[in-house]
Every structure is written in structure tokens, then in C-alpha cells.
Write the C-alpha cells for this entry.
Amino acid sequence: MEKVAVFPGSFDPITRGHDSVVRRAIPLFDRIILAIGDNPDKKPWFPLEKRISWLESLYKDEPKIQVVVYSGLTVEFCRQVNAKYILRGLRTSADFEFERTIGLMNKALYDEIETVFLLCDPAYAALSSSIVRDILKNGGDVSNFVPEGMNVRI
Amino acid sequence: MEKVAVFPGSFDPITRGHDSVVRRAIPLFDRIILAIGDNPDKKPWFPLEKRISWLESLYKDEPKIQVVVYSGLTVEFCRQVNAKYILRGLRTSADFEFERTIGLMNKALYDEIETVFLLCDPAYAALSSSIVRDILKNGGDVSNFVPEGMNVRI
Amino acid sequence: MEKVAVFPGSFDPITRGHDSVVRRAIPLFDRIILAIGDNPDKKPWFPLEKRISWLESLYKDEPKIQVVVYSGLTVEFCRQVNAKYILRGLRTSADFEFERTIGLMNKALYDEIETVFLLCDPAYAALSSSIVRDILKNGGDVSNFVPEGMNVRI
Amino acid sequence: MEKVAVFPGSFDPITRGHDSVVRRAIPLFDRIILAIGDNPDKKPWFPLEKRISWLESLYKDEPKIQVVVYSGLTVEFCRQVNAKYILRGLRTSADFEFERTIGLMNKALYDEIETVFLLCDPAYAALSSSIVRDILKNGGDVSNFVPEGMNVRI
Amino acid sequence: MEKVAVFPGSFDPITRGHDSVVRRAIPLFDRIILAIGDNPDKKPWFPLEKRISWLESLYKDEPKIQVVVYSGLTVEFCRQVNAKYILRGLRTSADFEFERTIGLMNKALYDEIETVFLLCDPAYAALSSSIVRDILKNGGDVSNFVPEGMNVRI
Amino acid sequence: MEKVAVFPGSFDPITRGHDSVVRRAIPLFDRIILAIGDNPDKKPWFPLEKRISWLESLYKDEPKIQVVVYSGLTVEFCRQVNAKYILRGLRTSADFEFERTIGLMNKALYDEIETVFLLCDPAYAALSSSIVRDILKNGGDVSNFVPEGMNVRI
């Protein structure tokens, strides 16, 4: 059976931390769906089109990677696309506590799903989309924090 | 002296995790007050009347349990109802860090109060009111996460 | 039914942290058994007789408190003495992680047992029997760390 | 070279916890700048003028302490005032996880900066500006939580 | 390329927690090697032969699972058997902190290795080999903690 | 007054993590004493002479750094050498919980002492002397984990 993983996120913007997890997971799966959550309650910083185009251009040479927008429960989306794995990166124990909660609830909602965690590269242990946005808002340079070649400006 | 415990919360909605803590605490106290905080700053998801009626119907056969709405400092409410104990459940170490802060401040404000913690049932370790609301917002089924017989819909 | 709590420990030696938890728990229970674990694998620093006599003299005016030596599983001891509660103090989230493991296993072994946690006084947040022993080994003065009047020397 | 530390915060209001960290750090540095972040996104509870005047009056006899308002990235401010150190207090491991993220990002943005942490006095381990504001909102008395002599009311 | 994972451990004894992680990982890999570390410094409780025979009998119907004894560095063993993945389960944030350290060191020693984490079933969140041994030493019954059909006695 | 810091440890062996903390702390203090604890209870892996000679050769060009062997309580040693600061690095929240306990006890024993923490370089977040020893015992190469030029072999 095809091994499909969903990597859910808002990618607002994608960081080098996300990118490192995704690339290291490629050999493990047959397909990885970068699933951009389109949540009516959360107002993103970057428009959806921008986030889609960043991801698509970043992984244009990776045939296993697909970019999809979804709304609703992540496990419902997994069921629809026949994915049995959710992929996540772990930086800190605070991350872990948060991810465990989500992971166990997802399993309670859909018993066939398994969350697969990889460690973040310690060089990016302090990196998150919200920190990248903070630096941008304050006029800083984020080129070392987003994947090479991405042009992230306000 | 009567042993009175206050279990403060917004119960928005009450979960199986809350219910398990409350029921296991019944033998320990003479009275447990389920104290619904009516906080003008926090907009609840379910109306106050709904939350009161859920709690009252859930514990209608438990003479030791009372449902009361309060506002202001929890310790002031405890003083008014002559409660010397605050009852809380602990799921994770993130919970603990949060609850310790609240518990120590409550003690600093009212030296006679003692916070009493029970462990949450590990089956509900990932459960919280906010996760239940998230599932509801996304159209999921929460009947396994709220006490049996409760009809929780948007 | 009589509410009996067991406070298990090696009390090697008892600290001000332990003492603060025990004294604050007295109003909550009808009886508290200070249960000195006599574990053949762990070599204590102070002889059993010394530890018994410290506890007995410390609580000689507290009719609710009993000092008992036990071996074997803590939950088996609880069953024998008809205790439905295990009493523990929590200092840090590291404590919590450890105590949760023990508490959940105890419940798995004996479903009627409930572990009841109180917060340690923050003034003693860094205090433990092993730190008291370390200070003693290095010739330091521990009189501020053990209950007043206890004469703890090597 | 002059050793300059920046202690950034919103001081909304300053607590006994902050004050304890600042005073213990005085001997370590030649100058400590209490840097009040003026962040357009975060609406403070107390007006900027009030927060400035509290800090200035509190440290009027400490020639090493300066009160400055800044906006933008903290590390940019440090560069401008020639500060090589950021001073922070640590209460809990949750604090640590948060501060490590900030500290590592600051270092990634400005390699010459070093964050220097002191432990908070355990007596103030549960204290924060947001808890002080919560108590105030609920009509409680905060005089034990803010530095002596400060008149903090709504 | 064949996807080979190593699940290293002392399995002294294997618990239901281990078993749950292994079985959920089977669909993800082409082969999983249960690698029993034979460490001259750590004296195991159960003889190596016993631990091998438990694992072999438990997974005799799982063609993807192999039982191998190794000594030396785990990453060296991975290199020899051509495994690019190390499989681990995560129960608590204390686990995570420990596993991250090991995982990052393994990566520092062998850049091609990736540690893949699954969440432990919360029902076994408090379970470990050392707790099983403790219960055994104290004469308790461990049949609910080890995989069904295993006969674990002292 | 001269600002003297003690960096206590067993340095068995010193790692790149230690070295990074020490070197970043040099500008902050007038003198840093690398204090090798000679603890009769802990059997070190490398002989004391070896550990002294590593430290001395590593910092031979740093006039602010001194290498001293001590036994007994760290705070007593600080008092003798007139040091008001203890220097420590923080890698993880597990580290923090441990260091806070030690730091608060040290302050309880000697009120004039202040523990000053720096963050470890995330590149060395998983590094410790005990991991270096483990790799050595298993025949691995540790040259990337100890300061350049050090010849660490069994």
C-alpha cells in the first residue's frame, strides 16, 4: 500500500526548520502532502496564494511532494487522501507536550492514523514561523531563517 | 469542620477528564462546589445557562455536589463559601507548571487555602475543553470526549 | 468511612519540605500513615531506628499521625491498612513527571487508590533528602533544612 | 570596555520578581538599561508614562540603572546602546523553554550578544505581571507583589 | 532501497508499551530489527537467552521483524545492518528530553541516521521495564504490563 | 571589587559545550576559576592529573582563567576564594530543573552567591561528558565533541 504522510501547518511562512524535517522524511514515505490549513479563525500573515507558491516552487523537483489546501479536521483530510501518517518535527519538550495532545486526539478520532515525529535540526531549535514574523514586523532580515532563495518581505 | 472544595473552571464544555476528577474526589470531601467562572474578559463558547444545566443534570444524583457561578478572584469566592480546598486535575507537566503558578498565588492571597491535585485518567490525557470546541468547529463528533448522555452540538 | 492516607518515603532524613506537606494535609484526612519504606536494595544513610524516632518525636502531639515501616509494594501496604489515598508533595515538573508514573502504576495495580498531591512550599522547592545528605557529607550545616529541633549529624 | 546589560520588558507593572533580579545583577554590570518595549501590537494595561515613572522612582538611587523606551528588535536596540548582554530571570522550566528560544534567536541575529540568566527568588516563583493585572482586575490587593512603596491601582 | 529500522533496547523485559510501538511501526518499514543491547556495564535482570526467546516467540508471525543482539555504539550497528532509521516511542517530556539527546548525538556520529518517534499508547504512559522489575521484586503481578502470553516471573 | 566566578565541574572530560560557555563568559568576569570537584564518592573516568593538564593547556593563553581542585561544598570553596558568582551553562529544561535546585540550595547556604547562567550553543545541546565517555567506551571517535587539539582516548 502506498505510504502517504500529511505534514499539516500554516507555513506562514515555511522555515528552514520545516524544510529540514520535510526533506529528511522524503525517503521514508511514498508521498508527502504539505497540507496548508485554511482556518477561518486564524488570520494568516501571508496570503494563501503566496504560501502555496512558496511551497510549490521550493519542492518543484521533488516528485513525492504535493501541496494541498484543506479546512476542517486534519484527520478528516487524512481519511480523504488515504494518508495513514501525520508528519511532525520536534524541537523542545514544550513542542512535545503540545504535539502529544494533538497526536493522541487525532488517534482518538481516527484509530488508523499514526503521528511520526522527527527531531528538528538543533541549528533551528529556536526557529518558528511566529518568530520569523516578529523579526519581519520589526524590520529585521530573515533570509537565514527561511529556505534559501525564498524572498520573504512584508 | 465541613471539608469544602471548590473546583473552578469555565466548563466550556465539561469533558470526561473533568468528570473523572470530580467523581474520584467525591469521597474525599463533604462538599464540592463546581464553580463556573463568569469572566467578563473571556467570551465563552457555550452560554452560561447551558453550562449550568449540563453540570446540574450530570450531578443531580450526587448530593455532595453543588453548581455555583462566581466572578472575581477564586480565593475570594472560596473565602465566601468557607472552602479551604481548591480541586484540580493534572494531565501533563505543562499543566503542572501552570497550576503551580496559580496555586502558589492563591496561597499568597489567602494563606488558609490548599490546592489538592488528582491525576487525570491517562485515557483523557489529551483532552481539554478547547480541543472539544476545535473538533466541534470542524464538524467532528465529540460524544466520546464529553460525559455520556450530554448532547453537545454547535 | 475513615479517610486514611499513606505518605510513603524513606525519610532519610525527613526535610522541612516533607513536614510542610504532612502538616497541611492533616485536616484533610482522618489518619495519615508515614510509611517508611524498608527496601533491601536501597541502602539508607541513617539507620531505620533513627528515622522512626525522628518521625515519632516530630509528630508526637498529632494524634492523626502514625509511623509505620513497610516493605513490598506500596499499594499492597495501602490495601492492608485500608488506605485509599497516597499523599505526595510536588516541587517541580520533574517531580510531577516522576510522580505521575508512580501514581498511574499504583492505580493500575489497585484501582481503588487515589494519589493526592499538595504543592510544596516554594521556600523548600530546592530541598530534598539527598541534598541534605550531600550537605552533611561535605560538612555543611543542615539545621535550616530539617524540621526545627531535629538533631541531624553524620 | 564598559559592561552594559539590557533588561527588556513591558514592566506592566514591574513586580518584586523583576526587582529582585535587577538588584542582584547590579554588581555584575557597569550599567543596566531597563528597556521598556513599546510594541504597537501589544496594548499595555498601564500607560507608558506611568511605567517609566515607576521604574525611575524605584531606582533613583542606583546610578548604574537607566530607564529607556525602545521599539523594534531588542538586538537592534542593544547594538545601538552598545550593550553586549541581555539580562533575564528564570522562574520555571516553562520560562526557560521560552527564554532559550528568544536567546538563541537573538544570538542568531547578533552574534556578539549574550543572554545572562539569574534565578528568580523562589518566593516570587509564581509571580508575573499578568498575574498582578489579573488580581487587580478582580479587585484584589497586589501590594505584596510589587516593590514596596509603589502605588499600583486600576 | 529497503527501509530498515533498528529498535534498540535492553527489553528487560519487553513491555506492552514497547510492543505497541513496534506493531504500529511495522507498516512503515520493510524490516524492523529488535536490537538487544548487550552492555557489559549494565547487569540485566533477565538473562540474554530469556530476552531473546521472549522477543522471538512474540513476533514469530511477523516476517518483517528480526531479533539481533549487539554491542558497541548503536549507530555502528545501524551502519553494519544498513539501517537508516532508529525507532523509539515517546511517553513523556522527560522521555523526549532524554531521547533528543541520544538522537542528536547519533546524528552527529552518523549523519545518515534518522530517529523516528511514535507516541506511546496513553494506556501505557506510566509503564517501563524498570517499573515491571520493581513490581516483580515486590511480589506483584505484572501480567497486565507485559504482552499477553508472556510468562514473566522472577 | 574583583568579579570572580567559579565554574564547578568534574570535566571528565571537558566538552566543546563547557568550553563554549567558559569562553563566552570571559569578558563578563575578572577571573574565572575552573574548579575540578574531587569527590571521594564519584569515581572519575579520567585521572585528576589528566583533567588538570587538559584544562591548563586549553586555557594557557587566557590570563583570567585559573584551574583549581577542590573538595567539600562548592559554596565553601567560593567563600574561600572570594567568588560571588557560580557560572553554569544551560542546554535543556531538564538541565534547568537540576541547576535551579542546586542554585537555590547554594543561595540558601551562602546568601551572597549568585549563579549566572549562559545558554549552551545549540550545536552542543546534546553533548555531555557522560555521552563522550559512552562513545569512548564503545570505541567511537570523540574528536568533534571535545575542544580542538585535545587528545582524548581510553
In short: Strands of chain A lie at 4-9, 31-37, 65-70, 85-90, 114-119.
